[in-house]
Amino acid sequence: SPDGVQARDFQTLPVAFQSLLSVAVKVYSANSFEEISTASEPLLAWFVLGFAGFWHVFLMNLMVAQLCQRFGATFKDALGYARLKRGSNIFDTAMSLISDNRWRKFIRSLNLDEPCPMDAADPGPKGGLPTMEVFDGSSGLPVQRFGGLASPNEPWPDQKDSEDTDFGRFEKMAGKRFDDLERLVDDIAEKLGGRRAGLRTSVRSSPRSSVATLEDFMTQKRSSLRQAVATTDSENEEAVAIDALQAA
Fold first, then answer.
1. Average pLDDT for residues 107-114, to the nearest whole number?
2. Where are the domains of the chain?
3. Across the strands, what pairs with 119?
4. Keywords, A to Z (predicted)?
5. What is the number of other CB atoms lying within 10 angstroms of the CB of residue 217?
6. How far apart are alpha carbons 7 and 4 in whole angstroms?
């Protein structure tokens, strides 16, 4: 209708924007809300209800999150500037009380010209103070150093796969060795009549247990072979004695 709330508050885009802004900042009159709810214009009512929910639920939370992030970044910057200022004040105050010889002796005691060792075969960079940290086996973050210039314009070196690293190559080589050991044990078990299942399980369990089981197995087979050879020799001696008696 020409006198309805839609014609009065939502007829053109500027008027509709002003009305929606009034709804957002909660200055829209309660009588206008009542007219929207009682008017025979359900599409307008659903539109105003959806805008109010979208504004108060999503846009307000988004604005609060952005403000919190901005305040957090500002706090970090302010804290950094405060520490720099404090260090500058301490430096200006303390350097006037320290002699040049004492300062040079302190610089030499830091050993900044020596590299910071990072590993047994990695001397590390110079100009730092090495510190020890507690080992964390679950971190999974190895230290990788690459040769070449440290210019930011240079491309970042490609990351190698786990198989190309020293640990990956060692793991691959150890797997091949255990596979060869398993095949050797299977061949021995087939030749000597052993049980393949037990040996295969022992080899798969752990390297130490597999080696111990293999040694026990070989010891048992050697003793059984010695007993078999001794039995064969005694049987041969008995056969020779019987032949001699028959010949006599």
1. 88
2. 5-95, 167-247
3. 122
4. Membrane, Transmembrane, Transmembrane helix
5. 19
6. 6
Alpha helices in 39-127 (DSSP H): 42-54, 60-95, 100-110
Distance CA 175, CA 169 (A): 10
Determine the Cα–Cα distance for residues 79 and 82; give it in Å rounded to an integer: 5
pLDDT at res. 208: 43
Tell me the whole-structure pTM to 2 decimals. Answer: 0.32
Q: What are phi and psi of 224, to 5 degrees?
A: -65, -35
* Helices 166-192 and 196-205: angle between axes, nearest 10 degrees: 160
> φ and ψ at 122, to 5 degrees?
-125, 100
Q: Which residue has the tokens 């802004």?
A: 21
C-alpha distances out from residue 143 to 17, 118, 122, 124, 231, Å: 57, 9, 10, 11, 64
Tell me if residue 119 falls in helix, strand or coil: strand
